[in-house]
Amino acid sequence: MKKLNYVCLLLAILFSLSSFKGKDEVINLDGNWHFEIDRNNEGIAGKWYNRNLSDNIKLPGSMAEFLKGDEITLKTKWTGSIYDSSFYFRPSLKKYRQPGNIHIPFWLTPAKHYVGAAWYQKEVTIPSNWKGKRIILHLERTHIETRVWVNDKEVGLQNSLVAPHVYDLSAYLTEGKQRISIRIDNRIKEINVGPDSHSITDHTQGNWNGIIGKIALEAIAPVYIDDVQVYPDVRNRKARVKITVNNSTKNNFTGKIVIWAKSFNSKSSDQTKEIVSKIAVSKSGTNIVELDLPFGEGMLTWDEFNPALYHLDVNLDAKGISAHKKVQFGMREFKINGNQFLINGNPVFLRGTVHNCEFPLTGYPATTVEAWEEIYKKIKSYGLNHVRFHSWCPPEAAFIAADKVGLYLQPEGPSWPNHGPKIGLGQPVDQYLYDETTRMAKEYGNYASFTMLSAGNEPAGNQVKYLNAFVDFWKAKDNRRVYTGMSVGGSWPVVPNAEYQSRGGVRGLNWNKVLETESDFSAGIAPFKVPFVAHEIGQYCVFPNFEEIKKYTGVYRAKNFEMFRQELEDHKMGDQSKDFLNASGKLQVLCYKNEIEKMLRTPGYAGFQALGLQDFPGQGTALVGVLDAFFQEKGYVTAKEYSRFCNETVPLAKIPKFVYNNGETFKAEIVLFHSGKEALKNAVISWTIKDEKGVVLASGNFDPKTYENGNGIVVGNLSLALTDIKVASKLNLEVKVNNTDFANDWNFWVYPNENVKVSPEIYYTKVLDEKAKVVLNKGGKVFLNASGKVVKGKEVEMHFLPVFWNTSWFKMRPPHVTGMLIQEKSPAFTSFPTSYHSDLQWWDIQNRAQVMNLEDFPADFRPLIQPIDTWFMNRRLALVFEAQVGKGKLIVSSADLGPEVQNKPASKQLFTSLQNYMNSKEFNPKNKLSIEVIQDIFMSPSKEQFENYTKDSPDELKPNSNQNKVN
């Protein structure tokens, strides 16, 4: 009997040990959960974990997604700064402040809004064979703080915006039915990362409450692989693998670890040999094993061109215990040499966009690889190779997808420590950023795409000392990526220890002088001996696309767009919205082209982070993208067109000006930008100049040459005498790298070299004087050059560059106009070749010109040249208009057009074209106006003026203020 009992006991032990063999077991917790809002913060004291909650919700998801929370009112307590309070006071917007018709202009409007504690509860049945195993609760991403109870026992509290919340429930769960309660609190509490941080703010993803991604209970062996980190050594064809093994049992453990790697996503395949090592872990202890994993001659490296990846298999084995972990990684080294980034020793220029957590259907980030692949492939199709995540870190799926697609990522600590919190002053955010970036490195550090790290965005406080220490900490801790302090504007102090600079100050377009493509940023980056990456370039606005409104079928509604659309209709221009979109869009693309090209021709420039390829849905509604917030095209530029000036290889032309007379010679120096996998060998670069009909006026080839990676590489010069151009013409220079898809082009304009004289049939005047009235009453023709005389519209400032970011966030800081809509088919432009939008020849006409407010003109009145106002005001504007007045006909221009205008060739030519039109039979204005309504433009101010009720302003307007000083 004793022997029988001994055998039974032995079998029981062996059976128990055998349960630790094989794959981990998982209980998926997706689906229905009990739910209840803890509006008065009474759930803990009331022991809600001990009773059934009264409501239901589905997870993964958020409260807003299932219409849990509060209706939107003017008293909604948003998470995010509002710098333009005029919405709450402007009489014209009163109807949007009424219950049932609330239209918030600052950001997208969620279906419901709630900030506070909420409880989520689920009953699970724990199987008997989980006894003795380590059981963990995995919450992939929550927002923000979680507390967990099993039945009536509290397990703990976690707060992370960047990584899964993982709880060890082994000591709390027993066989059978168990209740798990999770309290989630999305309030900003002691740890304040800043209300505008994209990790939490209503400006972007929204301050949601819920759980997304993987939600599961996992049963694993009590001796388990806690962490695996892979450190590639490309030069020596090996990887250092650091494996952390934990023993949660009360017995010492001895066993072996076996590792090997195999490629999985490339045409070529590679596999390492197995590496075996013994391991011992003391009871309730931890052991870290470091192993070298050699690669053979067939080792595959990862970069943007060939993103070859490996799976590392790690197996822990002993009698009765088996654990396994699979890790994705790439063999790559992302390093710095002087002012260059290197990928596997090859110089690389970063062409990036900023991702701000724009997810308008869900209000929270995607957690599937497929969703991120779609975003990344779109980004890459526009010639980009880099993504910065502004003050947030995406879920793991984003890194997996970037590895596969081939993009260099800069996630950031989840903080914009400004507008409230500050760094370096001992506030909780100081330690939190170390904790969060440590979690990021552990969770995502193996992914090849994770090449850069910033602590966050634009801080305040004792920032230099804090960020120097932060960078030094990470340089010593993990060499797999490069580190900067925070991503900042040009007025922020330099952090000397940063390995690269992500900062403004050396960016933008100086378009207050004759436009050219010869200058570069060399002087601006000269003080920096490390790579300089331009922070948030662009920010050029485009008019809203109201067709986008119907896309908002999820958590958010585009109430801001709805308001802007109604305002446009109220100002009698609703039928022009699509034209405004396209015309402003063409100017926006022109601006991005010129700024990007300026960086590409600057030797030593390291890269840019555009803001952005896609729109930003908050901060007043910043429509700065050529893609909308859904990463979809708006219709005025394609990826193929955009990638002509933004790509791994871009032909460039240094052109001194874009408007000529036919007595001059067009000259250009051709240079090349190249950031490829390898040099362009024996490349032939050709050029062609054509007119608008496609007739080739001149062409040529440069001698074959090998071009290494670099910016502004000299190719050669070309010239064309313009004497044969007899009429006003638009010409086009195109430069190609033969036998490739790389090509780029530039328009330029040639006008006859003629003196401007006033036609005797036209009365030219600078004031609407008595003579002008007499001429009009007698049926004559008058040209009124009203430049400098405008009163109605004087408050509207027009530059050639469009609105920056948006006029709400910057308190109506100029410029206020975002391009012009031009009636290109009008015979008024027969002698002035133009499209329907601002192009470079319009600069000397448009830049800093006054505009006229046509608020009292007939509803159907459309000017020949119509500046497009900021969508926050939607004033009906004109630069040039025509009308019948009395028996006569009139053209009024608030641009300086006339015979005395000098050194403005386009202005002279436009005046000539308008005169020719006035002297033709086709001069027959549609609208008849009274002299009084025209006269009023020069007498009465606009009826609706923007009044700034806000007493504060964003830091960008006051970089030297107390916001950036240490108290």
From TrEMBL:
Keyword vocabulary terms for this entry = Glycosidase, Hydrolase, Signal
GO cellular component terms listed in the entry, alphabetical order: beta-galactosidase complex
Q: Which reaction does it catalyse?
A: Hydrolysis of terminal non-reducing beta-D-galactose residues in beta-D-galactosides
* Family matches, as InterPro entries: Bact_Beta-galactosidase (IPR050347), Galactose-bd-like_sf (IPR008979), GH (IPR017853), Glyco_hydro_2_N (IPR006104), Ig-like_fold (IPR013783), Ig-like_GH2 (IPR006102)
An example of a GO molecular function for this protein is: beta-galactosidase activity
Q: Which residues form the Glycosyl hydrolases family 2 sugar binding domain?
A: 28-217
Q: Where is this region: Disordered?
A: 947-967
Provide the top EC class.
Answer: hydrolase
Q: Does the keyword Metal-binding apply?
A: no
Signal peptide region: 1-21
Which domain of life does the UniProt lineage start with? Bacteria
Q: EC no.?
A: 3.2.1.23
Q: Which family does it belong to?
A: Belongs to the glycosyl hydrolase 2 family.
Q: What is this protein called?
A: beta-galactosidase
Q: Which species does this protein come from?
A: Flavobacterium seoulense
